[in-house]
Specification:
271 residues, alpha/beta, Rossmann fold, six-stranded parallel beta sheet, 10 helices
Length: 271
Amino acid sequence: MANNLLKGKKGIVFGALNDMSIAWKVAQRAHEEGAEFVLTNAPIAMRMGEINKLAEACGNVPVIPADATSMEDIENLFDKTMEHFGGKIDFILHSIGMSPNVRKGKHYTETNYDFYHKTMDISAMSLHRVLKVAYEKDAINDWGSVIALTYIAAQRVFPDYNDMADAKALLESISRSFGYHYGVKKKVRINTISQSPVMTTAGSGVKGFDEFLAYANDMSPLGNADADACANYVLSMFSDYTRYVTMQNLFHDGGFSNVGVSEGVIDKFKQ
């Protein structure tokens, strides 16, 4: 049910590939809650995905291609977005992540370092670029909100998550460090959301993902949070109800992050 939670707010949504994407769900819900926004993704991702279909469903919102590893593209994105809206924006979703090492099946101990650099560049440094450009262009209104999606592998070992774990750790550090500076200057808040495992295009590429999805569900008192629930949480962080939350890594995982072991998992070892 829509409540006009984001009525009058404007933003940018990075990373909507298809209807499996959390960013896709966020865009849909933001539209339902009265927000206006621009959709963006890397040109290659846009060719692979269905972003234009989403744009049409959300009222023919603009789609502006941008490679998040390119400063020129990011600057162009902000210039065109501010031109479209006639001013500043209020929120940004960073939902960007990709590991060539994972895609190529490289074990963590056999990391290809050119691939590793690309993982960091795409999955973490891209957030710094986005924030740097927004900061320099004064593109975000006071009390605006930036959310980046992360995962608990930044804190704990999940062997097959590979170098994406390192990238998420860097992503969270960037959100804290930039969150301080942007907060002091413009009261802009920057947070990460550590989501339950969700069957997205990116997640499905991780070895053993189906089994881990079931494990996480058994470990979580509330079960895994799905993409729709995550979208609702993101919207709450874009809203004015969370104005004093910043520099936090927020777990949205049904309680998984605070459970050592569950009765359900113990029962499986008794069999």
